[in-house]
Write a structure and sequence with these properties.
59% of the residues lie in helices and 3% in strands. It contains 7 helices and 2 strands. The chain has a two-stranded antiparallel sheet with strand order 1-2. Helix 2 runs parallel beside helix 6 and helix 3 runs antiparallel to helix 6. The protein is globular.
């Protein structure tokens, strides 16, 4: 599967979708930022600046300060795709973020979402 279109998307576009999904489900932007920070090592205070830059989604993950090693404990499906079966490491990280935001949108507390995984 060619993931280049996803990697080339502006980070702000994807970030806006993630935040809007959380807000529609009664969550807050700060919840999304907390999850992103946990996963990537970006400081919460830096995420807005990154979102307002021209960084692509792929570059956002490639330049992440410290991907959380605990992320590999996250299992399950997202968009009918089993996370454990994704071969491309960056796409796996992208789908892990999707899964965490989906769990958040289902009403789980962000700290609980992170501690469950």
């Amino acid at each position: 599967m060619d993931n280049s279109r996803i990697y080339a998307m502006p980070f702000i576009k994807v970030y806006s979708l993630l935040v809007n999904k959380a807000i529609r489900k009664g969550r807050q932007k700060s919840d999304v930022d907390e999850i992103i920070s946990w996963l990537t090592g970006y400081a919460i205070n830096d995420i807005d600046g990154i979102a307002n830059s021209d960084l692509t989604y792929g570059d956002f993950f490639q330049k992440a300060p410290r991907m959380n090693p605990e992320r590999f404990k996250i299992k399950g499906t997202i968009c009918k795709i089993r996370i454990e079966e994704i071969a491309d490491p960056m796409m796996k990280d992208i789908r892990i973020l999707d899964k965490l935001i989906d769990d958040l949108a289902k009403g789980k507390d962000p700290l609980k979402v992170l501690s469950e995984h």
